[in-house]
């Protein structure tokens, strides 16, 4: 993946394009709350700024695009099958739970559901599988699979539209063709999946409840789904924090979830993936309450756990995929995109990583960006963990570091256009909906490209490392 900017675009033309593009963002809702305005994270419509974006789409050979797209339904199915094997989840995470309090709390809820033999008939997954193109091996390797709060289905679709618009207008200067930017329906596809889950639940007066953080600068990404739900399907959504659910929610004896006296058909989490979202016991009670109810959870506690880094690493071990799939072709496709992944019970790999830390990434069981350990910090952390010995290591996994090829691109942030050496990460959204034996949806559901300066280790857009981007197929 490399940026599509041809070498000799006149700087004045770039500047003009960046201004046009930023205005387009404001006109089309490609916006986030502005850090500079303290009210922007709590009051809708206040303190908006265009989302950070790349001026032109990132290049990607078409066969990688096809490969990543084909993987989406296979990963969707994998998540569903692994989620049904409660013992596998409990066992694989048993050491991690002893040293990681957050994972331990999630597993406790999961164990309670296993004990009461709780069945989820309607299962909804809205995932995003992220990839980087490794320059040395020319292979597309998975970074991670997000099964909770996969962000930017709303804004990501708009970036593709922005890029097509710019190429239409300036294509003659750029020698680019708009049709090479693939259409991106992430926003409407996710809304469709939520609406169909609501329809399977089959209570006309029930609502979709979005679980949100008390402060959310990325609220417009979420409001795009709300809008599609209402306008295309007539489905009403409500927005609640976990602490509000604790205060206003209850579960009736038949499993009905009522929040603020409204029956909830589908719970869609855009919070709850980090320990910061559980500052007190109230939030944990809310999570448990929702799990005990008959509402459709996106994700359920077991879908959530399947998306942990530890499970990613367990699934990459020899003969583990075979537990969940019979189809050899599917297994081969999955395995082809797995990078090197190791648990820290492997002494050999720890030694190698201490010697060559630049070839590895050390990951704790966290989500949301900014948590991984690289380079000299990685060496130091591993050295300490090795000296201490024992269980503390189970909180981490080691991953082969992937090195995408860097190229020049224009990144626009806060109305200012910078040129920089960048690398990109491709996310493919997947939607999966099942009611008992009936698979209602199993689709690739759009994409998200994120681009960051190549000197930055981390990649989150919301965390401030990356910008939103789209794709240019070559
Ligand atoms: P999170 O769940 O916090 O998003 P990720 O596993 O996606 O965790 O890691 C965050 C970022 O770190 C990624 O977006 C990517 O930029 C970078 N990263 C993660 N794993 C690797 C890797 N194996 N090689 C290179 N960069 C990586
Ligand atoms: Mg993640
Ligand atoms: Mg990530």
UniProtKB/TrEMBL annotation:
The protein's enzyme class: ligase
Quaternary structure note: Homodimer.
Listed EC numbers: 6.3.2.3
Cofactor: Mg(2+)
Protein name: Glutathione synthetase
Gene Ontology CC, one term: cytosol
Binding, ATP: 144, 309, 363-372, 374, 399-402, 425, 452, 458
Entry binding sites for substrate: 128, 148-151, 216-218, 222, 270-273, 450, 461-462
Keyword Hydrolase: no
Keywords (A to Z) from UniProt: ATP-binding, Chloroplast, Glutathione biosynthesis, Ligase, Magnesium, Metal-binding, Nucleotide-binding, Plastid, Transit peptide
Protein family: Belongs to the eukaryotic GSH synthase family.
Main location: plastid
Biological pathway: Sulfur metabolism; glutathione biosynthesis; glutathione from L-cysteine and L-glutamate: step 2/2
Binding site for Mg(2+): 144, 146, 367
InterPro entries from the UniProt entry: Glutathione_synthase, Glutathione_synthase_a-hlx, Glutathione_synthase_C_euk, Glutathione_synthase_N_euk, GSH-S_sub-bd_sf, GSH_synth_subst-bd, PreATP-grasp_dom_sf
Cellular location(s): Plastid, Chloroplast
Residue intervals of the Glutathione synthase substrate-binding domain: 206-306
Catalytic activity, as annotated: gamma-L-glutamyl-L-cysteine + glycine + ATP = glutathione + ADP + phosphate + H(+)
Plastid recorded as keyword: yes
Gene Ontology molecular function: any one: glutathione synthase activity
Pfam families: GSH_synth_ATP, GSH_synthase
Cofactor remark: Binds 1 Mg(2+) ion per subunit.
Domain of life: Eukaryota
């Amino acid at each position: 993946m490399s940026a599509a900017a041809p070498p000799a675009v006149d700087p004045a033309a770039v500047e003009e394009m960046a201004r046009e593009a930023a205005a387009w963002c404001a006109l089309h809702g490609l916006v986030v709350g502005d850090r500079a305005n303290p009210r922007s994270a709590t009051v809708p419509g206040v303190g908006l700024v265009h989302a950070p974006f790349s001026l032109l789409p990132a290049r990607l050979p078409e066969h990688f695009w096809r490969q990543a797209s084909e993987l989406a339904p296979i990963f969707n199915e994998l998540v569903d099958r692994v989620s049904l094997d409660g013992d596998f989840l409990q066992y694989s995470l048993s050491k991690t739970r002893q040293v990681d309090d957050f994972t331990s709390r999630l597993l406790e809820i999961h164990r309670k559901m296993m004990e009461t033999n709780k069945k989820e008939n309607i299962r909804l997954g809205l995932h995003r599988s992220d990839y980087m193109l490794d320059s040395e091996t020319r292979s597309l390797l998975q970074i991670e699979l997000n099964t909770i709060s996969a962000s930017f289905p709303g804004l990501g679709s708009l970036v593709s539209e922005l890029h097509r618009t710019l190429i239409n207008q300036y294509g003659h200067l750029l020698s680019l063709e708009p049709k090479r930017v693939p259409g991106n329906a992430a926003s409407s596809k996710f809304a469709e999946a939520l609406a169909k889950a609501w329809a399977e639940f089959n209570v006309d007066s029930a609502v979709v409840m979005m679980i949100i953080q008390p402060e959310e600068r990325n609220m417009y990404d979420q409001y795009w789904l709300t809008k599609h739900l209402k306008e295309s399907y007539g489905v009403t959504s409500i927005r609640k924090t976990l602490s509000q659910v604790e205060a206003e929610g209850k579960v009736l004896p038949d499993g009905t979830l009522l929040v603020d006296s409204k029956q909830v058909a589908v719970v869609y989490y855009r919070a709850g993936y980090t320990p910061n979202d559980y500052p007190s016991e109230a939030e944990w009670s809310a999570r448990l309450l929702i799990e005990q109810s008959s509402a459709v959870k996106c994700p359920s506690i077991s879908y959530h756990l399947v998306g942990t880094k530890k499970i990613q690493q367990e699934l990459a071990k020899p003969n583990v995929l075979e537990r969940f799939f019979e189809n050899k072709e599917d297994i081969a496709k999955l395995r082809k995109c797995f990078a090197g992944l190791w648990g820290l019970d492997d002494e050999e790999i720890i030694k190698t990583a201490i010697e060559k830390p630049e070839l590895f990434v050390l990951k704790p069981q966290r989500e949301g960006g900014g948590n991984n350990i690289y380079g000299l910090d990685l060496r130091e952390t591993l050295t300490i963990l090795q000296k201490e010995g024992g269980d503390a290591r189970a909180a981490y996994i080691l991953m082969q570091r992937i090195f995408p090829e860097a190229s020049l691109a224009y990144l626009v942030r806060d109305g200012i256009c910078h040129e920089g050496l960048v690398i990109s990460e491709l996310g493919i959204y997947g939607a999966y909906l099942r009611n008992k034996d009936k698979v209602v949806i199993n689709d690739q559901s759009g994409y998200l490209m994120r681009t960051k300066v190549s000197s930055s280790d981390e990649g989150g857009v919301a965390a401030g490392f990356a910008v939103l981007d789209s794709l240019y197929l070559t």
